[in-house]
Amino acid sequence: MSKELLKMTATEAGAAIHEGKVTSVELTQALLDHARALNEQVNAYISFREEAALADAQLADEEISAGNIRSPLHGVPMGIKDNIYIGGEVSTMASKIHEDFVSEDDASVVKRMKEAGIVLVGKLNMHEYAWGIDNNSPHFGPVHNPWDLDKVPGGSSGGSGAAVASDMSFSTLGTDTAGSIRIPSAACGLVGLKPTHGLVAKYGCFPLAWTLDHIGPMSKSVDDAAALLQVIAGFDERDPTSVEVEVGNYQAALRGDPSKLVIGVEEDYFFKDVDSDIEKHVRAQIDALASQGATVKTVSIPSLAYSEWAELATSLSEASAIHHEDLLERADDFGEDIRFLFELGELFSSVDYLQAQQIRRRIKQDFAQALEDVDVIIAPTLPVMPPNIGSAVADLNGEEVDLIDNFIRFTGPSNLTGLPALTVPVGVKNGLPIGLQIIGRDFGEETVLNVGSIIEAGNPMDDKRAPTGA
């Protein structure tokens, strides 16, 4: 089978299967062969489930032949991050402590993916317990960025990003607590959506920080992200943070007129201390929207000045509470980097945590007020480019800066607020992609995706793809 088929988007692959141009079994086998062959270089997968995947693909072909097409993604093969449970199978969380953990139930999102006829081919590599941004795992090895194998792919969903960018998965899911969908999506040239907190149920996903965690799509196109969100969105009473809200028609929303859009730009935080080339590409897209008739307004969100502290106080405290017993009894079984973070989290007091929640409340209020006057806020996704694997610093216009602090600086606020945030690729610097972030109102995914589709339609990537792929 031609590897050109593996370059298709997920919705294109679904259409090809449904139109009889290729079977799900053929496409699943081709993807598995490609992923196995490339995994030694990219290290995107922790494990494969070839026998189960081919059986699921066979069932999909039988149902499709009988005219029972469950969704636009029926029969499409995908990997899934290894902190999202497939019932009866191992989910390691890329850790030593949970290396043999088997869940009884499917995660909410896995259940919905199976109901949509998606074929799950394996579990994707990640930063241990989803608490890191470079995906350099001491237990399963580093994931390599398909655009440049020496560079980090971003994290914690680095395996997810690398798999989709290298055509080892047609689309997938990531988890996002401070940017772990959007960071690797930006670093790997993908579309990544962190939905509104509560829109996608998290039952069956190992938590990092209860009040900040999200699950969302990582895809080759905005249409793919919309199609996958359509599958996974919805209420599940087993998740106490799940919200019972009407699910939108996300693919149908990708038809908007840019002349009716009002774009917000927050200069003091989101355009401060940014790589000059990243800023240039992001501002070029804002200008392009304005040239198509969109209105651009400056907005002010003064409380963003405190967001980094509030994000860290919240995430570190909640993560340390989750891992407290293992930190006492099995500290040496954690990777050195995350053991340090969990130990650091133990130092925050209840006063620190509660003060962070007061700051968080103010940030939410300030965003809500800003979004009364604009449809979305546009910003860079990352202020710096991905460094080499093993580096703790990044380059910011010739100055070395801390990698973790800068990688989460522009993504963390949307976890504090719970607002939907989408990253789309908008250019390339030194062979690596650049991401633009679109932040919307609560449950405003349709608008956020629509703006992303308008930007994507302008082909800002000039059809560039990761060289490591099909």
Automatic annotation (TrEMBL):
It is an enzyme of class 3 (hydrolase). Its EC number is 3.5.1.4. Residues 26-449 form the Amidase domain. GO terms for molecular function: amidase activity; transferase activity. It catalyses: a monocarboxylic acid amide + H2O = a monocarboxylate + NH4(+). Keywords: Transferase. PANTHER family: GLUTAMYL-TRNA(GLN) AMIDOTRANSFERASE SUBUNIT A, MITOCHONDRIAL, TRANSAMIDASE. Belongs to the amidase family. This is amidase.
